[in-house]
Amino acid sequence: MRIGVPREIKDGENRVALTPAGVRALREHGHEVFVERGAGAESGISDGEFLRARGQIRGSAADVYDAAELCLKVKEPLPQEYDYLRPGLIIFTYLHLASSLELTQKLLEKQVIAIGYETVQKPDGALPLLIPMSEIAGRLAIQLGARYLEKGHGGRGVLLGGVPGVPPSEVVILGCGVVGVNAAKMAVGMGAHVTILDIDHERLRYLDDMMHGNIITVYSNPYTIERSSAYADLLVGAVLKPGARAPILLTQKMVKNMKAGAVIVDVSVDQGGCVETIRPTSHSDPVYVEHGVIHYGVPNMPAAVPRTATFALTNATLPYALELAELGYEEAVKRDPALARGVNAAHGRVAHEGVAEAFGLPLMVNPSGPSP
C-alpha cells in the first residue's frame, strides 16, 4: 500500500504522524511511504532520517495526498486540505467529528474513509490511541495551569504547591479517566491540594487507593461541581464520551462564582468542552478571560511537547497502520473490532453513533461493507 504523511498545518501543531522507525517498519512489510518535506522538523526529525528509513520525500502536501492510498495524520483535515480529499482515500488521524459539522459534511461529500484515533476502542472500553496523548494532556494541564496562575500571566499570583506557612493552591479536576488521573498525579507531585470528581465510584475508589489518600474524591453532580469550582484556583476539564460531544458540566453561572484570576484548562475542548464558557483557542493565542477567569482552550495541547508526543503517538498507532496497510480497509475492520469502532465515516455515510447522534444524521450499520 502507498502511505502518505503530510506536514501538519494546524496552528502550533508541531507533531508528525510517523517516526523514522515507523517508516522502516512499513517499508519492511513492502509498503511505500511518502513524507512531505519538513514534516518532522518541529519534532526534531530531519528529512534525512526519513530517507535513511527508506521513506520518500515529496515536496508538497498535494504530492503526498496524490500518491497515498492511506494518509496518516495527527490532526483533522483543515479547509486548506479539503481539495486533497477524494473517494476511497483512508484518513487515519484524530478527527473529533462530534464538534465539527463542517468537517463531517466535507468527509461525507468527499466519500473519504475516515478513521479516528480517538474512537479506536477495545472490547474492554480502552482507547489505545487516545491514551498516550491523554497522558500528556493531563500532565500539561497542570503545568500550564500553574503558569497561568502566575501574576505575570494574569492569574491570582499563587504558587501551586504553596510554601511552609502558606497553604497550597486548590486544584479541581472534573473526570478521573486517563486525563484526570495524570492531572492528579502531576498536581499532587507539585504539592497542590487536589479534588477530583467523577460519577464512577469504582474509578474514584481506584484513584483514592492509588494516591494513598493524597487527593479528595467526590461524587460528581451539579451541587458538588458548583461547590468545588467556587474554591478552585485551577480547574481542569477532563470529561470524555468516546466519539461524542462532551457534556456541559461547568455552567456559566458556576464560572461567574469562581475566584477572580482562577484558571480553567478544558482538555475536553476538542470534543466541544465540558465548560459552558470555553471555546477553542490556539497555541499562538491560547487564553482569554471571561467573568474574571482565565480560560485555556487549546485543542491540540500535546503539540507543545512535539518530540515526546510524536514518538508516543507512533508507538500506539503503528500496529493499526500496519493492519490497514497489510489487509486493506475492509478486511482490517472485519478482523479487528477495535479498528472497526474507529471508523467515523465511510462511503459517504456516518459510521460512528456518537457523530450521528451529535448531528442527527443516519448511522451506517456496517462500516466494512461496500459503497451503497
Q: What is the gyration radius calculated from CA atoms? A: 21 Å
What is the count of helical runs? 13
The unreliable regions are none
Instruction: Tell me the major beta sheet.
Output: 8 strands, mixed
Strand portion: 15-25%
Secondary structure tally: strands: 15
If strands are numbered along the chain, what order do they take across the biggest sheet?
3-2-1-4-5-6-14-15
Tell me, briefly, the overall form.
globular
N-to-C CA distance: 24 Å
Blueprint of the fold:
Blueprint: E1 2-5, H1 20-28, E2 32-36, H2 47-52, E3 56-58, H3 61-67, E4 70-72, E5 90-93, H4 101-110, E6 113-116, H5 131-148, E7 170-174, H6 178-189, E8 193-198, H7 201-210, E9 216-219, H8 222-231, E10 234-237, H9 252-256, E11 263-266, E12 287-290, E13 293-296, H10 306-327, H11 329-335, H12 337-342, E14 343-346, E15 349-350, H13 353-359
Helix pairs in contact: 5-6, 10-11
How would you describe this protein?
The structure is a single chain. The model has no long low-confidence stretch (mean pLDDT 94). The radius of gyration is 21 Å and the shape is globular. It has 372 residues and is of the alpha/beta class. Strand 1, helix 1 and strand 2 form a beta-alpha-beta unit. It is built from 13 helices and 15 strands. Helix 5 packs across helix 6 (178-189) and helix 10 (306-327) packs across helix 11. The protein has 2 domains: 2-127 and 306-359, NAD(P)-binding Rossmann-like Domain (Rossmann fold), CATH 3.40.50; 134-304, 3-Layer(aba) Sandwich (Rossmann fold). The chain has an 8-stranded mixed sheet, with helices on both faces. It has a 7-stranded mixed sheet with strand order 9-8-7-10-11-13-12, sandwiched between helices.
